[in-house]
Amino acid sequence: MNMSVAPAVTLDPAKLEELLGRFVNDLGAAFHAVNAVIGDRLGLYTALAETGPASPEEVAARAGCDSRPVREWLRAQAAGGYVTCDPRNERYSLSPEQAFALADPHGMSLPGAFLAPIATAKTEPAITESFRTGSGVPWGSQHADLFPGTARFYGAGYAAELVPSWIPALEGVEDKLRTGARVADVGCGYGVATILMAQAYPNSSFTGFDIHEASIEAARERAAAEGVSGRVSFEVAAADTYPARELDLVTIFDAFHDLGDPAAAAHHVLASLLPDGTLMLAEPRAGDRVEENFNPVGRLFYNASTLICVPNSMSQDTGAALGAQAGEMRLREVLTGAGFTSVRRAAETPFNMILEARP
Fold it and tell me: Is 3 a residue whose pLDDT tops 80?
């Protein structure tokens, strides 16, 4: 009888300890994501910001909650560095930076971004099956929490950069917007960027297009609440079939890589632009080589892309599946292949790169 024995494996204790450290950090972060969403929904961050240094009982009373789970929640938040604790009397507070990031309605809205990974966890069985079949998972088939979570994740960055930095970096575009331009925002989602532009440039008209009807309805409600319904509209339409023509500007914010056929969409955008029009493409920042993205931002986008972007693209015709870390070189290839003659990186942040494409 032939018996084989598995070769002995020699483990490096230091490397194993490092890996286990990463695991503990990630497992804690996964539980933290759920607690951050709970705190956001119950108004615990806001209550803490309003009460100042406070006991768990005071925070709970302000938020209308039971004090015992709130105490545990505060301890978890302090352990993660999201909340400040005075160990002398166990009173909790938010530093100015924590308050801006977590509780300020005009701040970074970080807790809301955790809705997105929690949503993918709820869709995990379908995503797992798509690994086996290659059939993908359409955007609209993800859990409903993904849509507001995505809007809140990107919204703070758009508010900080779009009007002050990104649009001025485009050649001649800001002058057109101030005078009066026709703009289409393709893949607009909840209309966060569309509405920001409409608020900043009242002489221009804006139309947001998206294939997800529920997001279009949410965008219309947001536009009405912000008082810009008269100069911004939202319609259900795909990136390669939207009806607008003779446009001065087309924008696509963090959606181009999600498309099933980005080449067809780029060709359609080109046909919809005036001869001196501009495509503004905001995409996740990425290096052209895979190893250039082995960093915290790349890790975030690769993981999100695995669960959201690639399955969405694969569920559509063509299924190009560029992924959220496609890189500038690959995006340039798609744009120039569609007929754009000029493509340049106009601006960048730690999370985004802005490409300007012209006919």
Answer: no
pLDDT tens per residue, range 51-72 = 989 999 999 999 999 999 999 9
Per-residue three-class SS string for 6-21: CCCCCCCHHHHHHHHH
Give dist(CA 241, CA 268) in Å, integer. Answer: 7
pTM of this prediction?
Answer: 0.91
Residue (of 169, 161, 167, 159) closest to 183 by Cα position: 167
Residue 174 and residue 139 in contact, taking contact as beta carbons nearer than 8 Å: no
Q: Write 37-45 long-range contacts (CB < 8 A, 24+).
A: 37/111, 37/112, 37/114, 37/115, 37/118, 38/73, 39/73, 39/77, 39/111, 40/111, 40/112, 40/114, 44/70, 44/73, 45/94, 45/102, 45/103, 45/111
Across 149-163, average pLDDT = 94
Query: Smallest Cα–Cα separation from 339: which of 283, 260, 277?
Result: 277
Instruction: Supply φ then ψ for residue 188, to 5 degrees.
Output: -75, -15
Neighbours of 168 (CB within 10 A): 11
DSSP assigned state of 162: I
Q: How far apart are CA 221 and CA 188, in angstroms?
A: 14
Q: Which of 124, 131, 77 is nearest to 103 (CA)?
A: 77
3-state DSSP call for residue 37?
helix
pLDDT tens digits along 236-284: 999 999 999 999 999 999 999 999 999 999 999 999 999 999 999 999 9
Mean pLDDT of 191-214: 97
- d(C-alpha 281, C-alpha 252), whole Å: 5
